[in-house]
Design goal:
By secondary structure, the chain is α/β, with parallel strands linked by helices. The chain has 15 helices and 17 strands.
Amino acid sequence: MTDFDNHRRISRREFSKTAGAVTGALAGFHFFPALAEKKLEKPTLAGIGAGGKGTSDISGAKRAGFEIVALVDVIDATKLSKLEGRLKKMGQTRQENPDARFFSDYRDMLAEMGDKVDAVTVSTPDHHHFHASSMAMQAGKHVYCQKPLTHGIWEARMLDQIASQTGVKTQMGNQAHANDHMRRCVELIRAGVIGKVQEIHAWTNRPIWPQGFAAPPTEEPVPDGIDWQQWVGPAPWVDYSPRIAPFAWRGWWNYGTGALGDMACHIMDLGYWAMQPDSGQRLAPKSVIAQQQGATDLSPPINSVITWDFGPSQYAAKDGFKFHWYDGYIDAHFDRESWQLIKNGDEYNHPNEDVLEGMSFSQYGSVVIGEHGKLFFHRGKNNWVLKSSNHVDGFDWPDPSLPRATDQDNYREWLDAIEGKIDQGQSNFSLAGPMTEAILLGVLAQRHPDTKLVWDADAMEVKGRPDLKKHIQREYRDGWKLIT
């Protein structure tokens, strides 16, 4: 069965009356900005996704100054016989917020809580990011959404549009974006410390979860306390297995976006942000191509190398710049019996020695190459390495131009925006949306490897490939289709 019961049908209708329907076009949105504009003493927050990453998002928001009034999750920890492994966090979140109302469906929460909720964190699997965030914004709620911002390209464009039109305060959960050292490196690159940018390289050892499988795991009974219909939500149906959730969903095209979607919003962040034009114009690639190993119709690759060509731009060399991505262990395979990736060796995909110049690939996650030098960067470190020619002699080191986040905390920066102390956090959806689009274009290239995909950002289509539209804007399951 893939439909919902009458209670859920009623709550969806009530939600449409209360919070406005999700639409599938730029026009026709129904907005409720009053909540977003009201003066708040201590903003109230609902955590959509209360285990896993949701645990840290809720605790981070609470520490920043939010009052937690609602929790939403498809797993009701109070009904589970055992709270083991990753499920322990679910019980922890419930215990730490005993007065928060609990829901298994965020549509019910938005309909029933109304103006008792000022803001939401969205810490669900990728395939729920768009529906949860768009519904919340249209109900006037400020939104902090985990990375990648959405599961699909069209969805990222829509969240950017909805955020702009509603005026709510938004933030994507790439936490290092709030760190002073990243903002300083952005300032230095834009000021020309390595000259005009020619190439950017970024890499990760992920995936560390199963990828590259060709058939689903064996179906198992759904445990009491897990709303599996709600977990699948708008995506294509799959029968329950603990080898899918709560963690391994990242290795499914239908629910996650693989290693690229999981990590690129962190590791590509410096390079993409540094190249963002001052005009605020959308930074979009002209084309992308991927090489990969192990992808199937169900699952992303075991490893991949991707290249985006961004063409000329404000901070790029005359011929433009290319962005290169590397993920996965070089010698690894999927083992169906254990449902794990088995790696033979510890070396993962990374740039060659011409790029690294003796620097350890395991110590750094990105390098920006300009006409006069290189900047090596790791988001988890508060220093960086500059390799440059004598171009730095007499270089006019710029004063800070980007605002610094309070306590280098992206939850606090989001709260500062909600309280009117700043206009928006720096990782708001106007930057996070276009960056996610570019990254998800790489995901599309992984599904069609060794083929150059020429991108028309305005039309949101791959030139000459109408067959790919189903991956750019996919159909949703019955009960989750958009109302236009």
